[in-house]
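Q: Fold this one first, please.
A: Sequence and structure below.
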Amino acid sequence: MYALAVKKSGKVAEFGIWEDGRWAWNVQFRRQLFDWEVEQWEQFHDNFKEFHFCKDFKDEHVWKRETSGNYTTKSFCRYVHVSNENVDRVWNYVWANLAPFRIEVFMWQLLQGKIGVKDELAKRGVNLKNMLQCALCNVIRETCDHLFITCRKSWKVWMGWCRMWGMGWVLPSNVKDLFAMWNEWQLGGKEWNTDQVLELARIRVATWVNAKWPREYPSALNVYRQPTIQCQLPKKGQERKGIQWDKPRYGQMKFNVDGAARGCPRPTGIGGILRDHRGEVKIIFSKPISETDSNFAEMMAIKEAFLIFSVSRWKNNHKLLIESDSSNAVKWIKHPDGAPWRMRKLILQTKKLKREVEGWEIQHVRREAN
């Protein structure tokens, strides 16, 4: 096909035309195709039939590793880490967003061995005049592993934590192994005192968990006094008013659809039920789809409803009402230009099916009424 094409390169707009708001491919060949070449062309044409163009959408660059379509350094690093099986999983704990950002950066530098300890400063050419001993014990050369683990001053702090939690533990020899088994901590103050450091750590932990999980830990003072006891608040039951399903109007069919996923992304499934103005069930569908997220599953369920109704015997004499408990899916069907980039293909496919249905509308309902 490539050898027979008159124009072998160019923009997509140069290989087709718009006809009644729809895109039609128009590829010119140097001669008339033989029968076996026509079959090849039809097979090639079928490969991109599922792709639909729309004048309402403008061409734009999209970064597929981010749901917004915009490039971020974080998404790039996440992609590199996931694609590289040899990457140490400890970095997932560092950037878990459980501590303030400056603490995460500090831990990342510490695990890399790039904290400004005396040993590291000497490697960078800083003249310390042979004063490389640890600032706490003043005995051994100050390295990251020594300062945070093997120094007898640091060791007392770790043992204080172990006694508080009732643990018997042999500390690892390096910071990276230690971090894999314990949460990070931060020290402060100019004068070293084991008891003060331990008290400071307890205060920091208490205020942190109170700010991070205020419902589970409502009192920072209680956490400080008994850090091993978790406070659990009783869940308040919320009474909801009774919601019932409403029958469609006469001459209208109602399709209630739903999609669900076990995670993001995980195996998903879609389903729907079509009923008339009497509430009688006419069609039921349910099937699994590929691994994706819940938003995509909700959109697939709506598309399936349009597809089924467009080939049903009620197509010409009934209007269609679709109800979904996904506000996002309903919003994207009503306003396709506001849909995320990864939904554009599905939106265009659904838009084509909407033309096959003369009268239709879609609305959002609560899950209890769907």
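Q: Good. Now the second chain.
A: Here it is, same layout.
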Amino acid sequence: MRKLLGHGELLLYLDFDGVLHHENVLWHPRIGAYLSAPEQYKLFQHIGLLETLLEPYPQVRIVLSTAWVCRYGCAKSAKQLGPRLRQRVIGATFHSRMDQDMFTALPRGKQVWEDVRRRKPSGWIALDDDGVKRSLDLIQLWNANAAWI
């Protein structure tokens, strides 16, 4: 069995909505993603902050754990991050061989945990606004080896 990208590495599971920008993102067939939020909020407004936070940790790779991947695919979603973060992206928790309805029915914590079990990273952490609202709390799943952040 071949090893997945991220095997033995340090991984950041990254959500977009509620993390890199306001949580209230809507989709329209003609204009794509847009925020329904006060004017001071912009899509991907916190990319610079995440770049700064990760700068001392060049070994950290990113796995996208966002609904954007189900809608746009991994490559197109990663393009939204800009070059500095995009070069760290090694994949996503969702991929085309999965049943999308079954995947999206899972709590986010379970989606992440299943990917952790497949990739077997040396350490991982999830940056997500969904953990508190779901039955499978990401904090309980956080690998103790991920104390590098």
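Q: Anything worth noting on the second one?
A: The first strand starts at residue 10 and ends at 14.
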